Amino acid sequence: MESSDQYNFSIFSPRNKHGRKNRNVIFSMLAIWAVAVFGFQFLLRAIEKPTPEKALTVFESEWPAVTGGNEEMADYQAILTSLLMVKGKNTVATGDQQLLSEAISTVTFRMVPKSLNTQVMEKVAALELMHADIAALKGQEYMDLKFRIQDASSGLIGMLEPYTGYGTTSLEAPILAASLRKDYPASLTEASLSRLPDIMKLYLTHNQSVLTDTKFLGFPFHYFYTAVFLLVLFVVLCIVYNRLIEWRLNREGIVE
Amino acid sequence: MQREMKKLYFTFILLLSGAISLNAQNLTQLEGSFKTGPAIILIAILVTFVLVGIFFRAKDPTDYYAAGRSISKVGSGMAIASNWMSAASVLGMAGMMYGFGYNGLAYVVGWTGGYVLLLILMAAQIRKYGKYTAPDFIGDRFYSRDLRIVSAIFTILISFAYCVGQFGGIGLMFKWILGLNYSWAVIIGSSVVLLYTLISGMIGATKNMQIQYVIIVTSFMLPVFILAFKFDYFWLLPQIGYGAAVTDIVQGMPAPNISDGMVLLNAYSHNFSIVPSPEYAMPWDPSTGTTFFQWMAICFSLMVGTAGLPHVIQRFYVVPKITDARWSVVWGLFFISLVYWTAPAYATFGKILSSNPEVGVLAKDAIVVYTAQLGGVNSLIVGLLAAGAVSAAFSTVSGLLVAGASAFSHDLYVKVINPASTPKQQLKIARWGTVLMAVLVTVVALMKLGLIAQLVSVAFSMAACTIFPLFLLGIWWSGANRAGAKAGLFAGSLVTFIALTYFIVGLSGGSLPGQAFISYWLNVWYFAWFGAPLAIVVNIIVSLLTKPTPLEIKKFLAEQVHN
């Protein structure tokens, strides 16, 4: 009589030599797969260090001066650049963007002579109006307004260039033009801007290590490893597994 | 048949020529207008799919469920890839990387790494077991009608959850091309995909999937070559060439960016430049709101879910030989990887091209198309790209609807409700099941519950918690018995229920005890990191404590599956 136990098996205890060899192949593949995918991420996590961007270092060194009342034009210039470096990131949350815009406006209007304030304010107001209108437009009307906004931005930037130092073709110029607001806090010490140092720290600190700073084929190494190499490895693992299984089936004369 | 195919081909070419001669307006408005050229390309492709569906339509239930087991391994690999590469792959993945940087790569790795598990743990064994559907296998292996019913219901739920993201993607692309609002776009797109699935069944779908794969790959890759060339990166292999762009994003690119005496600009004449943005590439960057744990949990859940998705597992029944089941995984993975190597390039170029604040906030799920538009790629090629994205969603949806309908008609109706039903009745039930499911999915897709990739990942976690443990233990441990399977399935279902409940309550603005804790640790996008291992452990413990597996099941496994 057949016993139920004679057909017992598990992946850990196969029933025969063929099964044991299969198991070894499977476990080897799984080990390579797991270490390659998860092991690397653990390594990345283990060696990373919170690393500030240059803009944060500048901001933190200038912030006491501009909020302490002994600021100079150069301090505002440095603060403005670091604020724009954050505002220019398109991952910034909406609420944080609002706050950054206000801070940028405050700093910019501090740098512009009072005699020019009204003119600048008019241009900023016109731009705000155009931005509000464009959402409802389609086709040619949309494109026309798009180009009018670009012209207005260029005009504004040109007017501010002697004080901010950003020419119309600079990286910072379009960010500045899009950030300026009619309504803004009178000074950086106002309570509404108290979160600013935390926001700057959040967006300007990154987890970096030798694996993220090393370049490979143009990529940061860790990015290449995850986005390109792991996929190659998966395909190779699958091919090797199939070849191994077929080779063993042939060798042992097993027909599936 | 060849003559019919030729007619089909010439119809397609004729329509395409029409589109080219019309030469649609330059696509500088990202949204909101009707786009003639892309619309004609989309219609031509859809007509082709429907015609192919008619020519290769299912004639009986065997054809409908398993394509008559007449598909080659390369063909099956293409079908796997096409079936797999959904709107989540073509649209959603780049959107995740665009929005969440390195954490988006968890989707790339999760959706490919799962194939290694699928190959070494499942593919050949499933084919050897010789059942048509996942509930068939579970009901038979665990000698339980109840488990067959529950797993059939889960198969339908998984297919349903998966379809929601796809219908959302179809809606986004129809919206972009036709200039309609999202709701109408979803309704029209859903109707077309339903019509196509109904008249084709799986055999037509499998033929279509091969055509769809070619369209998806061609349309997806072409713009990246153009973008890499245009913006002076290594364009011969843009899947590597975009690496320098990633570094440029990390370090920042000053303006104006001049190459060969020319200033590099996007379609709006904004500088091709960007402020230093290391958050795009650095791991689990705090500013993206993502963490190391989430990266690992998403990756693990997607991998395990891949090996438990009924419509993916079902593909192994359509290959004629066991060795074909194995090689079809390899081919499938390779074909999938071609697209997955390319998707991050879209996110990368998109990041730079949309960096000017005047571009405004872009919908992450449509970033692939926006990137091509902002890069000034010819409008017809952008149209082809959008049509390719629709193809991707169509191919997956058709497979999912067939899997869902199979579970409904084959596993519930035939095996439980009416075993004496005729093949004609079965086919009728399958088709009505498809209609019902499509209508319900459309209703949920209209609610816009999340990003495409996130919505799809719910299906993966669900499959990982319910189907995967049953397959894994059912194949690899003779001791796994009915009681253990039921207990394991209950545990997995419970975790699924908790995650979904907290998600729905959170979405509606409510709060349950431990809302923040559960929403983070058992988030609906990745709850399988806990649910799948729990279901396996519970299954093992209960199996060890209860009546052993019957002799005939053990004997069948030992002799047929593992001999």
Task: Report a brief summary of the structure.
The complex is a heterodimer of chains A (256) and B (563). Chain A has ten helices and four strands.
CATH superfamily of chain B, by name, is: Sodium/glucose cotransporter
Radius of gyration of chain B: 23 Å
- Our estimate of the beta-strand percent of chain B is under 5%
Helix/strand-derived category of chain A reads mainly alpha
Number of domains of chain A: 2
The average pLDDT value of chain A, as a whole number, equals 89
The strands making up the biggest β-sheet of chain A line up spatially as 1-2
CATH topology of chain B: Sodium/glucose cotransporter
Beta content of chain A comes to under 5%
Largest interface: A-B, 79 and 94 residues
Fraction of residues in H or I helices of chain B: over 70%
Write out key terms for the chains shown.
heterodimer, A: 256 residues, mainly alpha, two-stranded antiparallel sheet, two-stranded antiparallel ribbon, 10 helices, 4 strands, 68% helix, elongated, B: 563 residues, Sodium/glucose cotransporter, 21 helices, 2 strands, 1% strand
